[in-house]
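Quick one:
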Amino acid sequence: MSQEKTIGSSSDDSLESGNSDYGDIDYIPGSDESSSDQSGRMEVVAGYNPEKNTYSIPSLAFKLGHSLQKICSILESNAMICGNQTMAEQAKNFRIIHQARWNEFISAGAITTLKEAKWNVPQILPITEDVKLLNAYLEKKQDEYEKQLRTIPTADSYASLAKVTLA
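Output:
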């Protein structure tokens, strides 16, 4: 009786003993699908809008892509350690395809979304009353430091006047 295992699953014996045996993993979920099918899943999770080619959560698309690469590398190395060449080859092939097609399917749209989000941030202008209040304060300080410089001409009083004048 053959029992199909997926990434992260283990036999009952290994769970009880506390040992994890990666040698009996013989299937990568989605390894029989094309990379575009798998990128479609990522697009759903990250909120892809195909009409606008944008993501509602572009940073999640990046994080998922990097996590997939890390998982494939870990799976490939564990399979090689356990001597499972078929699993190592499948993980390697998926990682290579993922790296080659990543920009086309995910990265370009996510980068565009992030850049457009920065462009569309409204600039917040200070309130007129605040500008008037700041200007009045600076004029008051300028007069104060000017009088101080005339009475006590030191480097500190000159520096204070210069700072308030340039502000």
